[in-house]
Amino acid sequence: MAEDDVTGRRIQVANARPEDAGRGLARLPLAVMAQLSLAEGDVIEIIGKRSTAARVVRPYKEDEGLDVLRLDGLQRANAGVGSGDFVHIDKLESRAAQRVVFAPAQNNLRLQGHPEALKRVFFQRPLTAGDVVATAGQQQVPPGDMPPQLRQMLAAPAYALQEIRLVVVSTIPKGIVHIDAETEVELRPEYEEPKEARRADVTYDDVGGMADTIDQLREMVELPLRYPELFQRLGVDPPRGVMLHGPPGTGKTRLARAVANESEAEFFLINGPEIVGSAYGESEKQLREVFEAASKAAPSILFIDEIDSIAPKRGQVTGETEKRLVAQLLTLMDGLEARTNLVVIAATNRPEAIDEALRRPGRFDREIVVGVPDERGRREILGIHTRGMPLGDTVDLSELARMTYGFVGADLAALTREAAIETVRRFMPRLNLEDGTIPPDVLEELSVTRDDFMAAIKR
Ligand code: ADP
């Protein structure tokens, strides 16, 4: 195709800031907006391996001059790209939908909600079947000139006490549409597979306080998985094994899942203690089977949690079973063909307790430390776990970050859950438990306060 037959343009994707996550925005350089005759609030189609859409907003100040499109993790998944990849963008007149059908984006979640409330949450949001979207509303909309569609989209109320991810099962008409006052919205109670589904349960946006760790992992794991031919061409072997070490609850598992999703790789998990506990001979067999399945499904990431239980120092174990299991793991690592696009990520809190043989070149020869988050990290993690939560004005996440010295991600997640439970307790008398639903007016008033957090911290 000749260059002038194509409209739109190519642009490189970069990560959005955490506060933009889940809002359906596309931050574009002013020069690109001018080139494509785009005004703030206009809809663009974003085409990677898949196609999705977003509303255009001006760039962050410090981005001026950079030729990048900023998208959040769900949007990148919806477009089938990672940050650093190129997408094609073009202006698009999105049509108002007659009908949009949503379902929970997870298998194990049953939802009974108010389609009318959902309609407000996604009002004016450009959507297309197969998109995974999050109910992350409740942010303040800055004053100033703004086209009404954009303001309406940004002023979305919260939907529930926590962020919920939904998949757009279908729309009428097909293609890229937005919800307006006339749209009929339906919420199916259980997960339904849309066409061309792609998991996006966890992305880099969902791990907080780990910017450097994410950079390291992207280089070590995501790049080789996405561009194996590059590594072959350069004649370097991509890493096969990466060891993550840090205390429990710091987000190692979540991070590994995010890397898998962002690399469009399949994710396999081995839980160390579980596999060790199996019957005689079973442990090795299970290990072999998972390695085999992961190789077949490549590109894939095989995550081994608490590897110290599978591979303790051989000098220190007495049992034959343990020795055989370490040997089996070494054999499997060595047996991985260079061309198999599989990376094994192992996690441990006790790096010193692991058999040294596992650290040899070609095995787990890369190491990344995942530490306890500092105040800034805690602030970011709190931001992630309160995304989509209706927070009262009194809640100051920076204050909470200061008060939670020593908390790891899992503790902070638990804290926000506890605070939400406090809120529910307060509202309990107003809920109609008999018919199992929450009146919409109560739902709208529901908000988590500073006191709820303080009560949760005390527990
Ligand atoms: P680990 O594998 O290090 O034990 P997990 O990844 O299993 O930790 O974390 C448990 C839960 O704690 C996660 O599902 C998440 O809710 C929360 N969590 C932990 N670390 C983070 C983080 N850095 N950012 C956001 N959430 C986190």
Polypeptide structure, described:
The protein has about 450 residues and is an alpha/beta fold. About 35% of the residues lie in helices and about 20% in strands. It has 16 helices and 18 strands. It has helices spanning about 30-35, 75-80, 115-120, 150-155, 210-225, 230-235, 250-260, 270-275, 280-295, 305-310, 320-335, 375-385, 395-405, 410-425, 440-445, 450-459, and strands at about 10-15, 25, 45, 50-55, 70, 85-90, 95, 100-105, 125, 130-135, 165-170, 175-180, 185, 240-245, 265-270, 300-305, 340-350, 365-370. The chain has a six-stranded mixed β-sheet with strand order 2-4-3-6-1-5. Strands 15-16-17-14-18 form a five-stranded parallel β-sheet, with helices on both faces. Strands 10-11-8-13 form a four-stranded mixed β-sheet. A hairpin with a 3-residue loop joins strand 3 (about 45) and strand 4 (about 50-55). Helix 5 crosses helix 6 (about 230-235) and helix 12 packs across helix 13. The longest helix has 19 residues, at about 410-425. The termini are far apart. About 45% of the residues are buried. Adenosine-5'-diphosphate (ADP) binds near residues 207, 249 and 413. Keywords: ATP-binding, Nucleotide-binding, Repeat. Belongs to the AAA ATPase family. CDC48 subfamily. It comes from Sphingobium xenophagum. One of its GO terms (molecular function) is ATP binding. This is Transitional endoplasmic reticulum ATPase.
Q: Pick out the low-confidence regions.
A: 1-5
As laid out across the biggest beta sheet, the strand order is 2-4-3-6-1-5
Q: Give the number of DSSP strands.
A: 18
| Percent of residues in β-strands | 15-25%
Say which molecules are bound, naming each kind only once: adenosine-5'-diphosphate
Q: Can you count the helices?
A: 16
**If you compute it from the alpha carbons, what radius of gyration comes out, rounded to the nearest whole angstrom?**
24 Å
Mean pLDDT: 86
Taken from the alpha-carbon principal axes, the silhouette is globular
Measure the end-to-end span: 64 Å
Q: Structural class per helix/strand content?
A: alpha/beta
Largest sheet: 6 strands, mixed
- Give the % helix: 25-40%
